[in-house]
Design goal:
This protein has about 220 residues and is of the alpha+beta class. It is built from 5 helices and 12 strands. The longest helix has 21 residues.
Length: about 220
């Protein structure tokens, strides 16, 4: 069995905390999608034990993402990255990073995609979350559109797909009306579900949010 996690490095605020966080998490997971590694990326890579490897995007600052994986359990068949939504207000070109893995023990092959969605892009109305119609919201929707396109292409291979990331959208209070909300674009159209759906955490309505917020914005999604 494999464990897959997602973690936004930046929220701990300093390199020493990022490194200690990584050291803890890689003991618990076989694959870890990280976001906002930024200037810590090189230090994180250098801190990894011999059994772990790191594959980052080409971008450095300010929203660098990467996939960390246990190379004693997993072989890399192919890998890459591609652009997502662009945020003109912050001059940020968001990216996706992906790897096609083969589990050495079972021989099973699967994909993982990691990303960080545009921020300052949504608002809450009557207890439901929506992405805005401003430049940030449009960047968020464009990012989801790129994810949908990639997943749709990969699904043709019939292999399991996992998506990790900070989606900057509270899926559990998200609406099912906007075409690129996760509820519509992922769950309804692609049958891609989040971990809280599979584990019935959807029955828990008052769990803590992310980064001292009531919003829960970090997820692991999967298909098959």
């Amino acid at each position: 069995k494999l464990s897959i996690g997602s973690w936004n490095v930046y929220k701990l605020g300093k390199q020493s905390s990022a490194l200690s966080g990584i050291a803890t998490l890689v003991k618990e997971v076989d694959i870890l999608g990280i976001q906002e590694a930024g200037n810590y990326a090189t230090a994180i890579n250098n801190s990894l034990a011999n059994n772990f490897a790191m594959y980052p995007t080409s971008k450095s600052e300010p929203r660098k993402i990467a996939i960390l994986y246990n190379k004693t359990k997993l072989s890399v068949l192919s890998k890459g990255y591609f652009n997502g939504g662009y945020q003109p207000e912050f001059d940020l070109q968001r990216q996706f990073v992906w790897i096609k893995f083969k589990e050495k023990g079972s021989g099973k092959v699967f994909y993982i995609i990691n990303t960080h969605f545009p921020h300052a892009s949504g608002e809450e109305k009557n207890g439901m979350e929506y992405y805005n119609n401003d430049s940030n919201g449009k960047a968020w929707a464009a990012h989801m559109k790129k994810l949908v396109a990639k997943v749709s292409t990969l699904q043709k291979e019939g292999l399991p797909i996992f998506i990790t990331g900070d989606i900057n959208f509270d899926y559990r209070s998200g609406n099912c009306t906007q075409p690129y909300s996760p509820c519509v674009a992922l769950a309804k159209k692609l049958a891609v579900k989040s971990g809280w759906e599979y584990t019935r955490l959807k029955d828990i309505g008052n769990s803590a949010g992310t980064a001292s917020s009531s919003r829960v914005i970090d997820y692991v999604f999967s298909w098959q």
